[in-house]
Design a protein that fits this description.
By secondary structure, the chain is mostly beta strands. 8% of the residues lie in helices and 77% in strands. It has one helix and nine strands; from the N terminus they run αβββββββββ.
């Protein structure tokens, strides 16, 4: 029994990988497959965004900043469509499970949607959250699903600024390329 226990402990100790810590660089592309905006009744939303998560990763636990650098959404309401430019940044926490899954949560400190309606620019600003899960079984690539929910409390329209509650959310398919340097 002692011999078996010694062999088991030795196997576990030599089979474990060493702990790695480093700078996390995780560029991603996501495509919103469905979404809504409470300010636009009976509306649907699709679109894409390009962003990155930058931070620190240690033994599967990651944290840092998350943001998009470019994107474009289209809201369709009846036969009218509006093109929207989103932008947001926030902080995130992620964890890569020992199996081939990675989960993350981001708190969006600033979330904006800018659009032009009848030649007048309007901007919605607020905060939000993002929750996602990814399959990490492929080398250098992670595929996942994320849910983004934003709560806008300020609307600027034609030089006027008003306080108005407006919620927007979408579900997206995400493709990311996480590297720990």
């Amino acid at each position: 029994m002692k011999k078996f226990l010694s062999i088991a402990i030795l196997s576990l100790l030599t089979g474990m990988s060493t702990a790695h810590a480093g700078f996390l660089l995780d560029p991603y592309f996501s495509y919103a497959v469905s979404g809504t905006n409470s300010g636009l009744t009976d509306s649907t939303m699709t679109g894409s965004e390009l962003g990155a998560r930058l931070g620190w990763d240690m033994m599967g636990l990651g944290f840092g900043v998350d943001g998009i650098v470019s994107g474009s959404y289209t809201y369709k309401q009846n036969s009218v469509s509006s093109d929207i430019k989103p932008s947001y940044y926030g902080v995130f926490v992620s964890y890569k499970f020992p199996i081939v899954l990675r989960g993350y949560v981001s708190y969006l400190l600033s979330s904006k949607e800018t659009m032009t309606v009848s030649g007048i620019d309007s901007t919605l600003t607020g905060t939000g959250t993002k929750v996602g899960i990814q399959y990490t079984g492929f080398p250098f690539v992670a595929i996942g699903v994320e849910y983004v929910s934003s709560k806008y409390d300020k609307v600027e329209f034609g030089g006027l600024s008003i306080t108005q509650s407006n919620d927007a959310n979408h579900t997206a398919i995400a493709l990311s390329f996480p590297f720990v340097l």
